[in-house]
Hints:
Layout: H1 2-9, H2 11-16, H3 18-29, H4 35-40, H5 44-50, H6 60-68, H7 77-93, H8 98-115, H9 118-131, H10 141-152, H11 158-184, H12 197-205, H13 207-213, H14 219-235, H15 242-261, H16 268-280, H17 286-299, H18 307-319, H19 325-337, H20 347-356, H21 362-369, H22 380-392, H23 398-407, H24 417-429, H25 435-441, H26 452-465, H27 471-485, H28 489-504, H29 518-527, H30 536-547
Amino acid sequence: MKIIRTFCQAKQLLLNDKLKLTKYLKLVYQTPVSYEGVRKALGYDVILNNMKFEENQSEIFPLTLKLIKRDISLFDFKEFTTYLSTINNYICFSKSPYPQNEQEFQDALRIILDNGTFIQKFLTLQHIVIYFDSRITLYCQLATQLKDAVRDHQPKNTEEKILKLFWEQIDIYDQEKIESLIEKQTEPQNPTMKIEEGIKKEFIDLIDVLQVECEQYHLATQMVIFEIISRLYFDQDVEINEKKLQQIYYVEKQCQCKIEQNLSNLNNFHLVLYTHMLNLNQHEINILSWDKIINELTIRDFATMTIDDAFKIWLLLYEIGRQNSTVNDKIIEKLMNQIQLISNKYYVLLCELLIETKNSKTVEFLKKWYPKIDLENETPQNLCVILDAFNSAKLLNKLVLGKFLNALEGKMEQLEEIYVENILISLVDHQYQHEKTFERAVKFELFENTSKHFLLGLLHYCQLYNQSHPRVKEIQEVLVQVLTKEYDESILIEMLRILITAIRKKSSQHIEIIPELKPFIKKFLESKEGNLMGQESQFRSVLQKLYNIK
Length: 550
């Protein structure tokens, strides 16, 4: 009790100083106090909360490993999965090279192998195969021993049968992942996996028992059951009779209810996994589930989240139309804090999300990110997407635009139409002449399904710098085809902007409008009578004088 009282008195010390926390953990390790004693003591949450992403460079994690060695089986679900997340974060993002961290990783797995429960061993392998950075398991024989331990385990009940059954699927996925790493030097990006038909059938055979028992199962098992059921609905490759469907639906609801009561106890891997399963499993009940997930994200500490987790959540919420400004800002804040860890594999996704999602920190993020971008060595595709993000945020000026264009020198021929479109829009917005971009743009064939933004961007560039180019007529002919098929006011609004550009230029040169397009422009202007801020007469005067549109 004296030790526990001493621990309690140290609460303020723990809250205020991580260096003192490290020293304190060393002191506790030298005493006979058990992890159970530490857990009951005031200040325990401080230790648990300090096992976070930013603090993984410190001694806190190795010291905690030593402290919990004897008591790993006492960990509850939240403690254990926090521990697993910390292993991944500590190894992957420590300042030390991999070989120096190998011992900590080996120690962590050894503790689980020697003292963990079957469910803990299953959870560890699930994280290693699906979540952990693949590099950290390549040199670790203990991971193989852990797989053997789970593979050789004889299930004692239906719950263990479910976990053992799902491990068979994880093992298949692991082999595919290793083959991909060896052959292609890449690994699957999807955090979920397609479940084999045979495994689904075995699962369905157990549904009678699950209907009775599942409510009492461990949260990890309920997550597995929900994942299998979600795949049953999504893949639809197994025939299920009506009675079984009703039983499956009942089991699904039981598991879903338990999971959503414990969202705060899910680590980031399981939360991301649950959101993906929910997205596969499109039932009406899930509308409320998304609200609960967003509420959880608004209060969750994103410091414990990896860059990969953050992007997966951000993208999924965008794709399902459940964007939340608070969550968006938290993700941007998290990315700003770890901006040096953002791999260029995320650049396209990052820029697309910055453009498409509204949040208050976009400009701040881009300003901080710009100095970190290696323009000269970046791919031309990434450069174009980044350029578009800066232009959309109104952070682009001629100086910055010039730097992007210099970096693109010699790479223009690699660009597809969509990327050239981004550059054209930036050139027009800043009235910047760049012949290399124009030369690339006019090489693309024009069709009715060509992006209207590309067509209008190229036409606007011609209005500024090359009014007599043959493409001026060709673009208008395509626009006439598009407008004849579907009257699109957005095209005509941009056309008006292009035509009015002529009066702002010092040169008297301007593009010629083909006769077939003039009726569309006239019709649009007439339909907007009184809605163009009183400038109809000015527009009509310009159109009549320069383009003979009466």
